[in-house]
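Hi Y.,

Following your request, here is the sequence exactly as I used it, all 177 residues.
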Amino acid sequence: MTPSTEISADEVLKTDVFSNFLNAAKAFCTFIETEGSFTEIEFLRVTQIHLATLYFHARQIPSVHLRVDKDFESDIDDKQMKLLLKFIGERVPFSYYWVVLNPVDIKNVAEIGTGDLIDDLGDIYRDLRRALIIFETDDIAAKENAIWKFKFDFDFHWNQHCIDALSAIQHYLAENR
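Below is the corresponding structure, written out as tokens. Let me know if you'd prefer a different format.
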């Protein structure tokens, strides 16, 4: 099964690839939502493992053919999200970090931007939680749309947040052994 081949939701649901991703997504969301007795360094180390696991499994999710393109309710309340971002902020030792915006354009002077670890973790969480809400609906069309959303959101949004967060966390941990 190649990543560019579209298959049915029924077929995707039977794969270990999707099962592994789904377990990783649930574990990440639970980790972000749950208060633990982690130091800031321990929180970053566990976050790093979750992000690497998510990235690895998300890269393998096959494209699903949508038979029913329907919007399912999956919003997360803005107030809840603000509280979650505050909660994340209380557990990380830094928020902002530098990002090279196009690291492969070596012919031009690199443009530098600012990344935000709290925003990265919040965006990844929001995309995953919204798709999980849809996935947990007892309807095959909902599951199909959730699988499509998992793949789309990774490919076009949170993959970059994940890579940037991993890099920032790696650098922080290397300097704070």
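The first strand starts at residue 6 and ends at 7.

Thanks again,
Q.
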